[in-house]
């Protein structure tokens, strides 16, 4: 049996819910959409749901152009019941970036490091794959299911974004799926989305982060301000500095502080480091090169400043315990 056949065999209802992580990105949305279409071809209807909002212009444009329908879980408050079957994509139950909704999480399809706290009827968790959309694309080709233009375009964009155009965490399977979808993909839409990724307000966040960046040799810290939708991009941007090997970027959101972490050094595992650094005050995790986290918080400006200082010190302590870099001592502050 193929993976998708096993997944299909784990479903007992004619309608399921596909849940992405909170504040879904293109990979999560494309994966959910591809799986929804695939299930519909096999007689199972699916509703895609998420918590938070789609806060990036290009992600919202993808949804609009492809015609993807997603519902916020708040809209399902009086609809879901405990017997409803839920499929998780691009996340796992218990992770900090996904809310526990009403229903039974029976299936998980994800490419993040394995969380062994929960069991599913079926799980396909492959941390070695660069994008969850790659795994969904493979379901189509393994089962000889036609991939139309919308599906190919969404999955291609999800793969390109999550692998940073094949420069981060990419696997042979990611490349193979992009090749297979090439002729069916609308690269006009891809080009438009990739060249319209920022709004004017995003530049303000970049400016704020640049103005307050602190660098401790190869570790950088930057605050992007309130409710920043592009902290992951800013974290990538900071990592592009030749002086930085490990980037921590944060933004205040409703109920806490959201963090985005990037590492370009194999000896500094971003996912494991953020998990350890936020232990006891929040949650975090992800891949060796990219990770994210959240720290619950509801206080005034002075308390926020103290919390951010504590977070910074926690990262420095964990990285120091992790081991020295090739250059030796990386913990003396050299710039701001």
Strand order of the largest sheet: 3-2-1-4-5-6
Helices, by number, come to 11
Query: Which regions are unreliable across 5 or more consecutive residues at pLDDT < 50?
Result: 325-336
Q: Judging from the principal axes of the Cα atoms, what is the shape?
A: globular
* Structural class determined from secondary elements: alpha/beta
> How would you spell out the order of helices and strands?
HEHEHEEEEHHHHHEEHEEHEEH
Query: How much helicity do the residues have?
Result: 25-40%
Q: What's the overall average pLDDT, rounded? A: 91
Could you explain how this protein is built, in words?
The radius of gyration is 20 Å and the shape is globular. The C terminus is likely disordered. The chain contains eleven helices and twelve strands. Helix 2 runs parallel beside helix 4. The strands form two sheets. Strands 3-2-1-4-5-6 form a six-stranded parallel beta sheet. Strands 7-8-9-10-12-11 form a six-stranded mixed beta sheet, sandwiched between helices. A hairpin with a 2-residue loop joins strand 7 and strand 8. Helix content is 38%, strand content 20%. The protein is of the alpha/beta class. The longest helix is centred in the last third of the chain and has 22 residues.
């Amino acid at each position: 049996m193929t993976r998708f056949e096993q997944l299909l065999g784990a479903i007992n209802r004619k309608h399921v819910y596909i849940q992405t992580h909170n504040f879904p990105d293109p990979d999560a949305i494309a994966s959910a959409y591809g799986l929804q279409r695939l299930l519909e071809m096999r007689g199972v209807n699916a509703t895609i749901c998420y918590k938070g909002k789609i806060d990036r212009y290009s992600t919202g444009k993808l949804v609009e152009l492809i015609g993807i329908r997603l519902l916020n879980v708040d809209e399902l408050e009086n609809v879901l019941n405990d017997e409803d079957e839920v499929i998780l994509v691009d996340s796992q139950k218990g992770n900090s970036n996904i809310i526990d909704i009403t229903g039974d999480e029976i299936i998980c399809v994800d490419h993040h490091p394995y969380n062994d706290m929960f069991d599913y009827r079926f799980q396909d968790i492959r941390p070695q794959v660069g994008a969850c959309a790659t795994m969904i694309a493979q379901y189509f080709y393994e089962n000889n299911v036609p991939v139309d233009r919308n599906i190919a375009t969404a999955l291609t964009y999800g793969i390109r974004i999550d692998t940073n155009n094949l420069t981060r965490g990419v696997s042979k399977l990611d490349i193979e799926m992009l090749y297979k979808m090439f002729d069916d993909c609308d690269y006009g839409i891809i080009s438009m989305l990739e060249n319209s990724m920022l709004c004017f307000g995003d530049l303000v966040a970049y400016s704020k982060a640049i103005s307050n960046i602190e660098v401790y040799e190869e570790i950088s810290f930057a605050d992007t301000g309130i409710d920043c939708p592009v902290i992951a991009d800013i974290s990538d941007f900071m990592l592009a500095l030749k002086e930085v090997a490990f980037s921590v970027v944060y933004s205040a959101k409703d109920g806490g502080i959201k963090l985005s972490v990037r590492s370009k050094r194999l000896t500094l595992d971003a996912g494991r480091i953020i998990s350890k650094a936020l232990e006891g005050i929040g949650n975090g995790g992800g891949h060796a090169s990219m990770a994210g986290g959240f720290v619950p918080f509801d206080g005034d400006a002075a308390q926020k400043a103290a919390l951010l200082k504590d977070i910074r010190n926690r990262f420095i302590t964990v990285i120091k315990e992790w081991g020295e870099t090739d250059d030796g001592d990386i913990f003396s502050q050299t710039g701001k």
